[in-house]
Amino acid sequence: MQTVSTIFINGQPVEGGREPFPVNNPATGEAFAQCPAATPEQVDEAVAAAQAAFKTFQHTPDAELKAMLHRIADLIDANADELARVVTLEQGKPLALAQMEVGAAAGWTRYTADLDVPVKVIEDSETRLAELHHKPLGVVGSITPWNWPLMIAVWHIMPAIRTGNTVVSKPSSLTPFSTLKLVELINQVVPAGVINIVTGEGGIGRAMTSHQDINKIVFTGSTPTGQDIMRKSADNLKRLTLELGGNDASIVLPGTDLDKIAQGIFQTAFLNMGQTCAALKRLYVHEDQYDEMCAKLVELASEQVVGSGLEEGVTFGPVQNKAQLDLVAELVDDARAQGGRVLCGGEAQQGNGFFYPPTIVAGVSNGVRLVDEEQFGPALPIIAYSTVEEALAMANDNVNGLGGSVWGDDIEQARAVATRLESGTAWINNHAEVLPHCPFGGSKMSGVGIEFGEEGLLEYTQPQLLSISRG
Ligand code: NDP
Hints:
alpha/beta; Aldehyde Dehydrogenase, Chain A, domain 1; Aldehyde Dehydrogenase, Chain A, domain 2; 2 domains; 7-stranded mixed beta sheet; 23 strands; globular; binds NADPH dihydro-nicotinamide-adenine-dinucleotide phosphate; oxidoreductase activity, acting on the aldehyde or oxo group of donors, NAD or NADP as acceptor; Ald_DH_C; oxidoreductase
C-alpha cells in the first residue's frame, strides 16, 4: 500500500499531523493507499495562510486571474491520465467516465476563466452615478463529496480563485486523492496561500464550518450535513452555497415514443451508478405504457457490464462505499417487502468490492421508501400514473427539489408540465445535464444558492454599491 502525498498549506507540502488513514478501492473493498490526516491546528494554519494571501491576491488584475485559470486547465489536461486513474481507483467509476470527468474539469476551468465580473450601472443621471461592483469575499472553505470528486472540487475552487478569493479545500475522506493532486497542480500557478488543502475524517470539516476567519463555505453533499453547516455558519454570518441531496422526479407524458427516450432515461438515472445529485431517481409513467417502459429499461440494464472500472469493457462500476451499498440494498429490500417487483438486479454481488447491478423496481408508488428517499445508487423505482395531474402531484410530493424532467413528443405540452415542477432545474427530454453556463441550484431541501454561469460566479463576491454624487 502506498502512502500518498501531503496536504498543502501556504504553498508548501506538509505532513499531516495525525496518523494517516486508509482509503478504499471500491472495486476491491480494500484499502489501496493511506491519506494524510490534518489536525485542527493545521486547519487554523491553512486558514491563516489563506487570509494572509488574500491581502494581496484580492487585488490581482482580472486578466491575470483569467490567465492563471487557463494555465491550471492546461495542467489538468497535461495530467489527465494520472487524474483519471486516481478518480477510478478511489471512486470506482469506469475509466472512460473518469476521463470524461477530467476533461470536463479542464473545460469548466476554462469557461470559468473567461467569465467576466459585471459592473452594473444602476443610475447615471445629473444627480448621481450609481454602480454595482462585486468584490471578493475573503477565505472560501470548500467541502466536497465522493461521487464526482475532481469535478466538484473544480466547481468550487475555480470560481473562488477567478473572483480573487483564497481557498481552503477539504475533500471527502473517501475520495481525497484526486483533489490533493488538483491542489498540487493549482499551487504551481497561484501565489502561496491562495489554495490550501486539509484532509481528514470527521472533525476537519466541522473545524472549518465553525472557523471565524472563513468567510464563505461552498458545500456539496448530504442535506443533514448542509443543515449542520448552516447552523455553524451563523456566528460570523458565512456566505453559503449548499448543493444538497436530490430525489429528482421524471414524468413521461402519455403517448410518448418510448424508443426515442428509453436510452436517455436509462443513462441519466444510472449516471455514475446513480450516484449523482441530479440523477433521475423516480420515474412516473402512464399506466398504458408502463409495462413497455419497464421492459425497455430492463433490456438496457441487461446490456451493462458490471466490474472494476479499470477493466476493459466494463460499463458499470461499483458503488463507492459500503454504507451507500447497504442503503441501496436496504431500500430495494424494503420495496420488495412492500410488494414491489424487482425486475432486474436487486442483490449485491457476492465477493470483493461494493458491486450492485443496475436495478429496476416496478409496482411501487409514493409512500415506499425507495420512492420517497434519495437512494443515491443504482436502483430506479418506476411508478404508474393515470393522469398527468396525478403524476405532477406525486412528483412534487417530496422534500427535495433539485432537478426534475418531463419527456414527451409535444414540447409545448411538456413545457407546461415542466414549469409546474418544484425544482431548481426542469429538463425536457433530458435529465442531469449540468453545464458551465447554466445556473444550477436546488429548491426546497436541496440547497441554497446557485452554481455556474455569471450567477454562480457572483456567489463568491460581495456586492458593493459605488455612489458618486453629482449634485
Ligand atoms: P456527507 O454530507 O456526510 O459528506 C460530504 C462532505 O462533508 C465530506 O467531505 C465530509 O467529510 C464532510 N462532512 C461530513 N460531516 C460534516 C460536518 N458536520 N461539517 C462539515 N463537513 C462535514 O455525505 P456522505 O459522504 O456521508 O454521503 C451521505 C449521503 O449524502 C448520500 O447517501 C447522498 O444521499 C448524499 N450525497 C449527496 C451528494 C451530492 O452530490 N449532492 C454527494 C455525496 C453524497 P468526511 O468525508 O471527512 O466525513
